């Protein structure tokens, strides 16, 4: 009996420590949220609620400035889009469009892919808490490398458009597409404002 009580107390203590200190869900994150401040003028700060303002700068009590990286204008434009496949909805196929050969070459229906816009809108499936997260004002940029083999061109181009449209330009150093011995040979590299083949 004592062993069970000891185990229960250990689990209760572990749960309480997790509740207090876990990032994003613990009580510590609530404390940090209350101490988020918005920078107005250099050296001047005022309290401001979490998750408001497009491109605004914020500073935590740790002194590090954070930014709301969301592009609310683009989010609104995407919400207004209508068409086949928009918002991740199914593409309606007619009887003539049902063709098994469309799946053989790429493993998905290339006919459907060719008829969906390259800049297709997608639903935001993130957890509600993630939609209000702040990230550091200064983040390192990154190279994005996409290897592919006999990929359908429209799906590949849709991936590139999605990266460019949904990532702040300052965070992309380059996008490199590497053809992994396809029958159709291409290597494409993207740097902000330029394409290099």
From TrEMBL:
Keyword field contains Cytoplasm: no
Entry-linked InterPro entries: Glyco_trans_2-like, Nucleotide-diphossugar_trans
Transmembrane stretches, start-end: 12-31
Transmembrane helix found in the keyword field: yes
An example Gene Ontology molecular-function term: polypeptide N-acetylgalactosaminyltransferase activity
A Pfam entry, by short name: Glycos_transf_2
Glycosyltransferase 2-like domain span: 143-185
Listed SUPFAM superfamilies: Nucleotide-diphospho-sugar transferases
A GO CC term attached to the entry: Golgi apparatus
GO BP terms in the entry: protein O-linked glycosylation
Keywords annotated in UniProt: Disulfide bond, Membrane, Transmembrane, Transmembrane helix
Name of the protein this chain belongs to: Glycosyltransferase 2-like domain-containing protein
């Amino acid at each position: 009996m004592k062993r069970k009580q000891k185990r229960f107390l250990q689990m209760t203590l572990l749960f309480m420590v997790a509740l207090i200190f876990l990032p994003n869900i613990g009580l510590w994150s609530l404390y940090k949220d209350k101490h988020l401040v918005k920078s107005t003028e250099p050296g001047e700060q005022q309290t401001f609620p979490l998750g408001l303002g497009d491109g605004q700068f914020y500073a935590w009590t740790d002194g590090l400035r954070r930014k709301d990286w969301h592009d609310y204008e683009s989010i609104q434009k995407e919400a207004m889009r209508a068409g086949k496949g928009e918002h991740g909805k199914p593409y309606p196929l007619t009887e003539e469009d049902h063709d098994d050969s469309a799946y053989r070459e790429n493993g998905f229906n290339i006919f459907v892919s060719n008829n969906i816009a390259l800049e297709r809108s997608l639903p935001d499936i993130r957890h509600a808490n993630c939609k209000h997260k702040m990230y550091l004002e200064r983040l390192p940029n990154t190279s994005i490398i996409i290897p592919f083999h006999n990929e359908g061109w429209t799906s590949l181009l849709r991936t590139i458009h999605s990266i460019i449209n949904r990532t702040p330009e300052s965070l992309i150093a380059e996008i490199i597409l590497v053809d992994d011995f396809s029958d159709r040979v291409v290597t494409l590299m993207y740097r902000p404002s330029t394409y290099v083949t």
